[in-house]
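Long-time lurker, first post. I've been practising inverse folding by hand and with some scripts of my own, and I keep getting stuck on stretches where the structure tokens seem ambiguous. Below is the full token string for one chain I'm working on. Before anyone asks, I'm not after the true native sequence, just a reasonable design that respects the backbone. If someone could post their per-position residues I'd love to compare against what I wrote down in my notebook.
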């Protein structure tokens, strides 16, 4: 895999990949108490939004078809790792992980947004 993006997000910055690669690996390092939001590949008209939110104690997925919530441990060095493919994605955070089936649409994009608090995220995205 080659790196598609490697850098930091500050303030209101965002990462946008359009279209999103068919398969990619994402690592997101963030500060304690920050709540990053990822819009996993979604259509450009935002009819099929797949929002993944990290809170202090949970990872939450909201899509038109499903609402999932997983408990996650508190961490002094939070890092969320995601592997995305044609059938969905798997995530890993500290000792917790899960596989999620997620419908993929053509011409989708990946958006990473900041939290309500000031942010300084380290983001690495790799794709084939």
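-- Answer (accepted) --
I ran through it position by position. Result:
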């Amino acid at each position: 895999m080659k790196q598609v993006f490697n850098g930091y997000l500050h303030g209101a910055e965002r990462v946008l990949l359009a279209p999103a690669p068919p398969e990619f690996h994402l690592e997101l390092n963030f500060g304690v108490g920050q709540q990053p939001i990822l819009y996993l590949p979604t259509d450009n008209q935002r009819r099929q939004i797949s929002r993944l939110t990290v809170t202090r104690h949970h990872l939450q997925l909201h899509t038109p078809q499903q609402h999932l919530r997983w408990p996650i441990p508190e961490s002094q060095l939070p890092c969320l790792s995601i592997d995305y493919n044609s059938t969905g994605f798997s995530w890993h955070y500290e000792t917790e992980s899960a596989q999620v089936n997620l419908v993929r649409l053509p011409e989708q994009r990946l958006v990473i947004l900041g939290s309500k608090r000031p942010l300084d995220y380290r983001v690495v995205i790799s794709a084939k």
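A couple of notes from the structure itself: The mean pLDDT is 82. The first strand starts at residue 2 and ends at 10. Happy to go over any region you disagree with.
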